[in-house]
Amino acid sequence: xISEEKLKILxxxxxxxxxxxxxxxxxxxxxxxxxxxxxxxxxxxxxDGRCVSLLKILMTNVCEYNCLYCVxxxxxxxxxxxxxxxxxxxxxxxxxxxxxxxxxxxxxxxYKNADYTMELLLETVIKLRKLYNFTGYIHxxxxxxxxxxxxxxxxxxxxxxxxxxxxxxxxxxxxxxPQKSKKAILSPISMISGEKQWNKSIKxxxxxxxxxxxxIIGASPEKDGHILKLTEALYKKYSLKRVxxxxxxxxxxxxNILPKESAGLLREHRLYQADWLIRFYGFKVNELISEExxxxxDYDPKCAWALxxxxxxxxxxxxxxxxxxxxxxxxxxxxxxxxxxxxxYGKIDxxxxxxxxxxxxxxxxxxxxNGFYKGLKSENDIKLSLLENKNxxxxxxxxxxxxxxxxxxxxxxxx
Length: 415
Ligand code: SF4
Prior knowledge:
By secondary structure, the chain is of the alpha/beta class.
C-alpha cells in the first residue's frame, strides 16, 4: 500500500489542476464518521450529469520539464514521489470500498519522457478495469507528445480525458513552457475528437464523457478576448465538453518573466460567465468582447453587453423571441422558456413575472410588459444600479504564503 507521506505529496501536487473541479474543507475528523479535510477528493460530472467525488492524484510529481509557472517544475526544490500503477489501483479500490470516492482523476508530471509516463498511466487504468474490475468513473490527464497508440488505447478504458492547453498562445508556451508545443497538445485533442465522432457512429464506448482542457490565465499577457476566441474555436472544432480557466498564482518568485500578481478570481469568474454565454446562450465572442480587451470586472458579461446595446432594449415580454428574452440581464434560459410557455395563456405583466419567480431587480431596466416600462429612466442610473461589488471588497487571490488552513481550503475549493 502507498505510504502516507507519498500520498500527501502526490495529492498535494495535483491540486493545481482545475480541469476537474475540486472541493474540500479544513474540518477534521475528531473521532466521528467521515473526513471532509482530505485533500485529493474532488468532484466532476459524469456523462449522465451525476456529480461524483474523485480521488485526484498524480502518478508522480517528478518532472523532466521546466514550465516556469508550475510548482512541479524540474528546477523547483520540492519533495518528490512516484507511485506505482499497483499503488494507485489499491488506493483507488480502498477509497472506493470505504465510500470516500466514486472515481479517479489521474494525472502526472512528465517522468523520464512522454511515452514512459503515458505507459504508466495506461497500465494503471487497464489494471483498474481488468484486474480490479473497477467500473467507476476515471478521468485521465493525457501526456502531450506521447505515442498515439498509447493515447487511443487509454481512451477505451477511461471516461474522460484532457490535454491541457496550458497557455493561450504559442508564443507564451515557448516562453514559459519551452518543452511543450501547441502541435503536441492539439494533435491528441484533434485525434480524440475525430475518434469520438467515428465511435459515436458505431455506438462504441470511447471516452463517453468526452474531453476537456485547461488554460492558465494571467501568467502571460493574452487578453480575455483572445482567450475566449480560442475557447470558441476549441468548442467548435473539437467539441470539447469544457474549457477550464485557472487563475495564475505566483509561485516562482525568482522569475523575471512571470507576473508578480495573480490574475484574480474575479477575472477567472468573468471568463466562466462568458464561456457559459457562448455555450448556452448563442453569444458569439465578438459580441461580448474584442480580441484586445479584457472583460469588465464591474458588470457580468451579459449585463455589459446589454448596456452597450441600448438600441436593442427594452424588449417586450409578450412578443420577444426566446433568444432575445434570454439576453435580458436577470432572465436566464429557463426563465425565458417559462415566459414563452406562459404567453400561451394570456398577456404577462410584472405581477405575472413575479409569480413565475423571475427576478426583476435587473431585468426591469430592460423590458416592457404590455408596452409599459417601469425601470430607471436615465442610462447612468441604470449603469450605477447594476454596478457589481459597489460596497464589497475587491476580489483578490489569497497569497500562497497566507495561513496554511486558508490556503488549503482555497486551493482545493470548488471553482
Ligand atoms: S510538464 Fe510542466 S506543467 Fe506539467 S508537471 Fe511538469 S513542469 Fe508542471
